[in-house]
């Protein structure tokens, strides 16, 4: 297939581009580089510098090639930032996605894979999380992702769009050999922050709350290797059903606490990684982890990187060899 990957210069997008190319698909990356990195884009892919807010740029890209499918990785993802600047999130995550879908409809692109999130469920009462849980997000980031899910469901009914909505848990790790990896500015994800402490770039890790109803009192999350996530995208784009928008969880079904991540990182890096316990942050659920049986049963997806030490080791290879990210 010929696939347009919007946001393909970002962390998850760039890993998915590599997987699509390895499966002999032809890929064009469309990215404004506001958060992504040109160096993250595999040289085998075509790169187009463009912004989803620019409908004319989208039309040019969709006229230059006839695409079979599109993937969307271009959302803003920082929950705290979404609370402080909700209009920024609604403009980029919803209005810009509407621009993309409008252009896709005009150019006859009927396959779509969307990066959604477990945040559409808010703080669930039941674990592991299944796709049929009520959608009740508790922050603007989750609200915008749910709004796009509604938009995709409406588009499937109205003009035959086939959409797969992959609800991410905690994307982590890096490509083999440290070729590409995670480089956010500023960094907000736990594993890279822990590894920045190991590199001496931070004095300590601040742990927000150690009194949750979990085995060690710290929050528990489902950490999915980015290459397993990329495999889910490959299977999803092949399996899209025209006229149907369907959601799938992408997680391991296993939860690891903050302190478990720190312990594993100490073992992998050989560094002490000091920890400072701080007050809880508003909106942090005690535990979030996935039931991904639907994805396994529908597409035959199987995560291969279930050992948290292996996952952290892949991230460590990237951060150790690229201590300043893609600036190196």
Biggest sheet, in brief?
7 strands, parallel
Shape: globular
Kindly estimate the percentage of residues that lie in beta strands according to DSSP. Answer: 15-25%
- The top-level CATH class of the largest domain is Alpha Beta
- How many E strands? 14
- The stretches of 5 or more residues where confidence is low (pLDDT under 50) are none
Short synopsis of the structure:
The protein is α/β, with parallel strands linked by helices and 328 residues long.
What does this structure look like?
By secondary structure, this protein is an alpha/beta fold. The chain has two domains: 2-171 and 223-250, Rossmann fold, CATH 3.40.50.720; 172-222 and 253-327, UDP-galactose 4-epimerase, domain 1 (Alpha-Beta Complex), CATH 3.90.25.10. It is built from ten helices and 14 strands. The longest helix has 21 residues, at 86-106. The protein is globular, with a radius of gyration of 19 Å.
């Amino acid at each position: 297939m010929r696939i347009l990957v919007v946001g393909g210069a970002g962390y998850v997008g760039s890993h998915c581009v590599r997987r699509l190319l390895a499966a002999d698909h032809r890929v064009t990356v469309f990215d404004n580089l506001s958060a992504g990195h040109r160096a993250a884009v595999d040289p085998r892919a075509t790169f187009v510098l463009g912004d989803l807010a620019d409908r004319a740029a989208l039309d040019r890209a969709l006229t230059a090639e006839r695409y079979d499918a599109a993937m969307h990785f271009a959302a803003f993802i920082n929950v705290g930032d979404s609370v402080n600047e909700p209009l920024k999130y609604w403009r980029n995550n919803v209005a810009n996605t509407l621009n993309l879908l409008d252009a896709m409809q005009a150019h006859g692109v009927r396959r779509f894979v969307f990066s959604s999130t477990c945040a559409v469920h808010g703080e669930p009462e039941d674990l592991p999380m299944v796709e049929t849980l009520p959608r009740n997000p508790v922050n603007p980031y989750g609200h915008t992702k749910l709004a796009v899910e509604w938009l995709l469901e409406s588009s499937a009914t109205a003009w035959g769009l086939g959409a797969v909505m992959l609800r991410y848990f905690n994307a982590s790790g890096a490509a083999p050999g440290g070729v590409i990896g995670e480089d956010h500015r500023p960094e907000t994800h736990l594993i890279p922050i822990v590894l920045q402490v190991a590199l001496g770039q931070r004095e300590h890790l601040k742990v927000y709350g150690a009194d949750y109803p979990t085995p060690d009192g710290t929050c528990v999350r489902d950490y999915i290797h980015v290459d397993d996530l990329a495999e889910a995208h490959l299977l999803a784009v092949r399996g899209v059903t025209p006229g149907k928008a369907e959601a799938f969880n992408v997680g391991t079904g296993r939860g690891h606490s903050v302190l478990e991540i720190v312990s594993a990182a100490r073992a992998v890096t050989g560094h002490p990684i000091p920890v400072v316990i701080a007050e809880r942050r508003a909106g942090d659920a005690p535990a979030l982890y996935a039931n991904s049986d639907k994805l396994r049963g529908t597409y035959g997806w199987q995560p291969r990187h279930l050992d948290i030490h292996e996952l952290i080791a892949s991230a460590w290879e990237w951060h150790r060899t690229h201590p300043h990210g893609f600036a190196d």
